[in-house]
């Protein structure tokens, strides 16, 4: 990793002496930037394994919505000995992001971000609040137009051929807005029809998804009356029903109870074991550490580290490594010391 500048007073950021070359294992520094805590970070150039391909000309094939026959072809993956999950690509990346940029006014939310997610990978995207995770995933899934850059799902350009790209993806966006006057079952039927699935398959998969996710009893309840966790689960069901190749999930475990969380983990494992690829964001480092084969840490719209989870962790708990990379904030100078005083003294 390139030289690090200690953060300004009031924070304890990365210790330059302790920093191992996480980024340089996958990237090389080009220009500098700082995290919100003041930590100095390089702009990475991704290296093989997680490196995206160069931008391609837009494909000219007509867009397809719905079950793509090519989805029935097995996805080639390589499985390392001793591991149950594929960890290295045997084909083009499932998701390639090249030079993605988005600014909101003066705020640069995503700064020329490049990375690739191998096929058959469970990939975690982590970062502090405001790091740019949702903005990145929104641009990657065709929900938010980038200012610059390219996104490929397999070899399909998301912004040049959105219909075809979206047929390959299942998306659980942040702050999901569903047609909540529909019941859970009606919503799944609507999504299935939008995907041009046949009625029998929609009904069959809906029953299975509702049952597996513990929503059968509320299948005919309006989604507006669902709890936050139930809404998250029906959103996940909508993302899965057309059997995508790539799942992009923004905070899929947020608000979800532990039992359902375990079910979702099993669903995702099964999906990946079948050759699918999952990209998820989360703030729960323990979850990402145990679930994800690979992880990217981002802050201030840039990558701080990307690679196999074990490589990024460097033998430490991911939580600890994350704090080292991002820079932990500590209360100093009597910050909120008034909170500790007795109430009678005001
Ligand atoms: N629609 C918008 N208009 C203006 N600024 C925005 C908008 N969306 C995001 N931002 C800003 O872009 C930056 C990145 O936001 P983003 O939601 O991508 O972060 P995040 O990593 O997903 O954060 P969190 O973990 O809190 O969900 C933030 O500074 C945010 O204020």
Automatic annotation (TrEMBL):
UniProt domain ABC transporter: residue ranges = 95-325
Task: Please tell me whether the keyword Nucleotide-binding is annotated for this protein.
Answer: yes
Q: Which keywords does this chain's UniProt record carry?
A: Antibiotic resistance, ATP-binding, Nucleotide-binding, Transport
Instruction: Provide one Gene Ontology biological process annotation.
Output: response to antibiotic
Q: Which lineage?
A: Bacteria, Bacillati, Actinomycetota, Actinomycetes, Propionibacteriales
Give membrane topology per the record: Peripheral membrane protein
Gene3D superfamilies tied to this protein: P-loop containing nucleotide triphosphate hydrolases
Q: What is this protein called?
A: ABC transporter ATP-binding protein
What cellular component GO annotations does this protein have? plasma membrane
Residue ranges of region Disordered? 1-90
Matches recorded under CDD domains: ABC_DR_subfamily_A
**Highest taxon of the source?**
Bacteria
Localization: Cell membrane
Instruction: Note the InterPro entries from the entry.
Output: AAA+_ATPase, ABC_transporter-like_ATP-bd, ABC_transporter_ATP-binding, P-loop_NTPase
- Molecular function per GO: ATP binding; ATP hydrolysis activity
Q: Where is the composition biased (Polar residues)?
A: 27-37
Output the SUPFAM superfamilies linked to this UniProt entry.
Answer: P-loop containing nucleoside triphosphate hydrolases
Question: Which SMART domains does the UniProt entry name for this protein?
Answer: AAA (SM00382)
Composition bias (Pro residues) maps to 43-58
């Amino acid at each position: 990793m390139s030289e690090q500048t200690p953060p300004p007073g009031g924070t304890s950021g990365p210790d330059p002496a302790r920093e191992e070359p996480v980024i340089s294992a996958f990237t090389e520094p080009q220009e500098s930037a700082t995290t919100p805590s003041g930590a100095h970070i390089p702009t990475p150039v991704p290296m093989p394994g997680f490196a995206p391909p160069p931008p391609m000309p837009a494909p000219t094939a007509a867009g397809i919505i719905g079950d793509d026959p090519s989805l029935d072809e097995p996805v080639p993956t390589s499985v390392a000995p001793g591991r149950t999950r594929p960890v290295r690509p045997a084909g083009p990346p499932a998701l390639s992001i090249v030079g993605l940029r988005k600014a909101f006014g003066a705020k640069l939310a995503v700064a020329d971000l490049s990375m690739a997610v191998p096929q058959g990978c469970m990939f975690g995207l982590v970062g502090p609040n405001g790091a740019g995770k949702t903005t990145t995933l929104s641009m990657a899934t065709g929900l938010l137009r980038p200012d610059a850059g390219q996104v490929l799902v397999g070899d399909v350009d998301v912004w040049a051929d959105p219909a075809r790209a979206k047929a390959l993806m299942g998306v659980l966006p942040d702050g999901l807005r569903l047609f909540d006057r529909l019941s859970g079952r009606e919503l799944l039927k609507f999504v299935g029809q939008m995907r041009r699935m046949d009625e029998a398959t929609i009904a069959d998969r809906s029953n299975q998804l509702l049952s597996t996710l513990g929503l059968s009893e509320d299948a005919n309840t309006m989604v507006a009356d669902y709890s936050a966790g139930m809404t998250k689960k029906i959103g996940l069901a909508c993302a899965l029903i057309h059997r995508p190749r790539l799942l992009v999930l923004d905070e899929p475990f947020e608000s979800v109870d532990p039992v359902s969380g375990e079910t979702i983990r099993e669903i995702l494992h099964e999906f990946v074991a079948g050759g699918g690829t999952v990209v998820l964001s989360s703030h729960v480092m323990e979850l990402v550490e145990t679930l994800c084969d690979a992880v990217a840490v981002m802050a201030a719209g840039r990558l701080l580290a990307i690679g196999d989870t074990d490589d990024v962790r460097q033998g430490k708990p991911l939580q600890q490594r994350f704090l080292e990379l991002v820079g932990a904030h500590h209360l100093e100078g009597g910050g909120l010391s008034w909170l500790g005083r007795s109430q009678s003294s005001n």
